[in-house]
Design goal:
The complex is a heterodimer of chains A (692) and B (153). Chain A is α+β, with helices and mostly antiparallel strands and 692 residues long. Chain A contains 19 helices and 27 strands. The longest helix of chain A has 20 residues. In chain A, 58% of the residues are buried. Chain B has two domains: 74 residues, Roll (Ubiquitin-like (UB roll)), CATH 3.10.20.30; 68 residues, [2Fe-2S]-binding domain (DNA polymerase, domain 1, Orthogonal Bundle). Classes of the chains: A alpha+beta (692), B alpha+beta (153).
Chain lengths: 692, 153
């Protein structure tokens, strides 16, 4: 056998974090900032073949491709000389969740430093052993060189061949010997309400062909929902067992849609006193004569990934557990499972699989824990994939929010701006934190809810404040967090200010923008869309309109969007073209940044035209895509994307354009019809009524 | 019970005969390219081609297709592994983001082009609007179908 030579960076000394002994405190995700030292543990070389362990989760940004571009550039190697593996909790030191469009912003430079170190070590004749990091100035990194080989190009998508050939990539694609199928039945109410199974027909269940077992384990608890596990030899046998069992549930409490609406109703919050959290703090007289005074309501919304979450769990003979998971943080899953099953975290290996759409929704540990508990009870590997109805009922969602924006104008300029809003939680989600812990976090606010609410336009006085409200439906991160809804409200109100002053909406924004990079994307989108003012076209069977919006994401990325819409006399809105200008600094893969812009534009369209989740009988009432529609191909217009090219540090593209997409479409509807959309998604009937 | 899948006759064990075609493909036979998305035939992630027509395998009873020709994403490339023009166009346009819906999209597109080699924009909208993609890759799906259509002519 050929002796393997192996050259690898030394693993960074792992920070050992002891979990608190008190099990009342939930496991929370840890977020170590990536360093070049840590990156030395991601890359290695053996026998001339390079290996990179992807320190991120592939959730659809094709980040594996971009990260491979960075590594190949810095290593100075051919594309095929580098093999890329997804990480598991056993193969690399802990990395933070794949959230917040951080994978290029925070990981590009550390990875490049590690790869440059490895390249130099090999050039110096090293071929075995561990090497120490030699950090260099950024200007010496090849990823910032003037004539790069991979950066700025469009290599084949990593796993592209596997996707179009239908190879095994996702958690649910895992098949193990003697594997059976599991599901945890829960009361048909929000897991926020205490509920438990009290009676079930065991004999009827046993009579179902393919029945394996029932698992009545107190650990099968999600928040306040105590579940009953079922196991079967085939997947659809689970449905037949569930029917036969006819479980009777004990449920404590109830709520309806109006309870959710009332909880976040901004008028109620304002009437009951000052809002608790302040983002912009200028003092404003609340008896001002407002030139613009608008209320916006944005409801619960689903992530709607096409992949319902899934996991496969398998114990080996020594009692060690392997879990294949499609989540945004396998370390959080590992820690949660280790705690719940009283396992040493070293005996739990969670392997990351390609995720079939996450959008912030696959950040908690749910189906993975269910699979692990069922596998332990069964003595077999168990696959669990949630049904679509479980996704809606037991997952968390975009929080509902209610906004009031008041503005005064003076000499055609914005004078005072007062934005108050109420929302349920995002980062300090009720899906993870019990009420008492959430109340503690309320003292520091919720930065996820605040995201994007710091109005980017000049005004003499700016006041932005919000209330956090716990509601009985789980809410949490949803693409862009608060930025999507907050910017939809802000850009709608700014548009109204421009209309009040008879100003061109682009010119009005331009004259109030503080950040030159925001001005650049706005100017760029005006140019590519041939902006000549937002004038509705008359004398056609449809109303035609054009709108613009722009915004900043996480203080680092910039987008501006122009939308054209065509609206039938019965209120049916068709977006006919979208233009987007986008600045995320130095671009690694322009084609995939464009792809992210396109996706975000479709999300913006969904925010305005379809995203909502009805609540009924103490739960999210949606059970299929028919109840919570997402944009379809025929809804989506041609899109034109312009990327601003510069050498500024790379930022994020995964959620940026969403800050401007929905506002531009809403403003186009206003332009076409004269009606300011204030309740989303827009109800065509309401639109027609308002016009009359 | 036997099914003819991608040109091969496959034996279906008794325990799996009551499963919908989707689970027979994925879990019994290991053809995992076809995806579970909604289970009620709305999203299209489970699309396969049955006797030339794009069908939802999640709501197709296995016993109903024993006399049919079933084609899945794994059987779309030719016997030498060369990609079908639709698969190649999907790569050329870099369509996939998360990729989960794409097998269904590709099968729907392949079925469209088999019967309508030069579809109009409206034909594409009509044939593809019941295949959902949450990442929003629709613009590229349109372009890839156009590209595959041109490649075939």
């Amino acid at each position: 056998m050929k002796r393997r030579t192996f050259l690898k960076g030394g693993l960074a000394a792992g920070l050992v974090v002891a979990l608190p002994a008190c099990s009342l405190i939930p496991v929370t995700p840890k977020r170590p900032q990536p360093t070049a030292e840590a990156a030395m543990g991601w890359v290695s070389c053996a026998d001339g073949q390079y290996q990179l362990i992807l320190p991120r989760i592939e959730i659809g940004q094709n980040i594996a491709t971009a990260i491979k571009q960075i590594a190949c550039e810095e290593l100075g190697i051919e594309w095929d000389e580098l093999s890329l593996d997804f990480h598991s909790t056993a193969t690399i030191d802990q990395v933070k969740s794949t959230v917040g469009s951080e994978s290029i912003k925070d990981f590009a430079v550390p990875l490049a430093q590690a790869c440059a170190t490895l390249r130099d070590a090999i050039a110096a004749g090293r071929s075995t052993g561990e090497i120490g990091l030699v950090e260099r100035p950024l200007s010496d990194l090849r990823i910032f060189a003037a004539a790069p080989r991979y950066i700025g190009r469009r290599p084949p998508l990593e796993q592209g061949q596997d996707i179009v050939r239908g190879q095994s990539l996702y958690a649910a694609d895992i098949r193990r010997e003697n594997m059976i199928y599991g599901r945890v039945l829960r009361a048909p109410v929000s897991p926020e309400l205490p509920s438990q199974p009290v009676r079930w027909d065991m004999d009827a269940a046993r009579a179902v062909p393919g029945f394996v077992d029932i698992v009545d384990d107190p650990s099968l608890k999600q928040a306040q929902s105590k579940g009953l596990g079922i196991l079967a030899k085939t997947p659809s046998t689970l449905d037949r067992i569930a029917d036969a069992l006819n479980v009777q549930w004990d449920i404590d409490g109830t709520f309806e849609q109006h309870d959710i609406d009332n909880a976040v109703d901004i008028e109620r919050r304002l009437n009951s006193g000052r809002l608790a959290n302040t983002i912009q703090s200028d003092s404003i007289e609340d008896d001002s004569r407002w030139d613009v005074d608008l209320r916006f309501d944005i409801p619960l919304g689903a992530h709607g990934p096409i992949e319902p979450r899934a996991a496969v769990a398998e114990f080996d003979q020594s009692g060690a557990l392997t879990v294949w998971a499609g989540v945004q943080d396998v370390f959080f899953v590992r820690d949660t499972i280790a705690r719940a099953l009283s396992l040493d975290s070293r005996d739990v290996d969670v392997k990351s699989r390609r995720v079939g759409g996450a959008f912030g929704g696959k950040t908690m540990c749910t189906v993975e824990l269910e699979a692990a508990l069922l596998a332990r009870a069964a003595g077999h590997p168990v696959k669990v994939q949630w049904t679509r109805a479980q996704e809606y009922r037991q997952g968390f969602h975009r929080p509902p929010s209610s906004h009031r924006i008041r503005a005064t104008l003076k000499e055609d300029r914005l004078d005072s701006w007062w934005h108050g809003f109420a929302s349920s939680h995002i980062l300090f989600s009720n899906a993870v934190l019990p009420e008492w812990m959430q109340q503690i976090t309320d003292f520091i606010g919720d930065p996820g809810v605040a995201r994007g609410a710091d109005m980017p336009y000049r005004a003499k006085n700016r006041r932005t404040e919000f209330d956090l409200v716990r509601i009985p439906v789980f809410t949490g991160p949803w693409r862009g967090l608060g930025a999507g809804p907050n910017m939809l409200a802000i850009e709608s109100a700014i548009d109204e200010c421009a209309i009040k002053t008879n100003a061109d909406p682009v010119a009005f924004r331009r004259s109030h923008i503080e950040d030159p990079r925001l001005a650049d994307v706005l100017n760029s989108v005006a140019e590519i869309s041939n902006w000549q003012g937002a004038k509705p076209t008359e004398d056609t069977p449809t109303y035609q309109g054009r709108g613009v919006a722009c915004g900043i994401y996480k203080e680092t990325s910039y987008a501006a969007v122009v939308a054209d819409v065509s609206i039938s006399r019965d209120g049916n809105i068709q977006v006919t073209h979208l233009w987007c200008a986008h600045d995320c600094g130095h671009i690694i893969n322009p084609d995939q940044v464009r792809a992210q812009c396109e996706g975000n534009l479709v999300w913006g369209l969904g925010m305005v035209l379809s995203d909502q989740l009805p609540v009924e009988n103490a739960r999210v009432a949606a059970e299929t895509f028919a109840d919570a529609p997402i944009p379809r191909l025929e809804d989506v217009s041609p899109m034109t994307i312009e990327l601003i090219s510069n050498r500024l540090p790379p930022t994020g593209a995964g959620e940026t354009a969403i800050v401007a997409a929905s506002g531009a479409i809403a403003n186009a509807v206003r332009n076409a019809t004269g009606v300011r959309p204030t309740r989303f998604p827009i109800d065509p009937k309401e639109l027609v009524r308002s016009q009359a | 019970m036997k099914l003819r899948i991608n040109g091969e006759l496959r034996e279906i064990c008794a325990a799996w005969r009551d499963e919908p075609l989707l689970f027979v493909l994925r879990e019994h036979l290991g053809l995992v390219g076809t995806k579970f998305g909604c289970g009620v035939g709305i999203c299209g992630a489970c699309t396969v081609i049955i006797d030339g027509i794009a069908q939802r395998s999640c709501i197709t009873a296995t016993e109903d297709v024993t006399a049919s020709e079933i084609r899945t994403i794994e059987g779309l490339a030719d016997n030498n592994g060369n990609l079908h023009p639709v698969q190649q166009a999907w790569l050329d346009e870099a369509v996939p983001q998360c990729g989960y819906c794409q097998a269904g999209q590709i099968m729907a597109a392949a079925a469209l082009l088999a019967t309508n080699p030069q579809p109009s924009d409206q034909d594409i909208d009509d044939a593809m609007s019941d295949n959902l993609c949450r990442c929003g890759t629709y613009q590229r799906i349109r372009k890839a179908i156009k590209r595959a259509s041109e490649a075939a002519t």
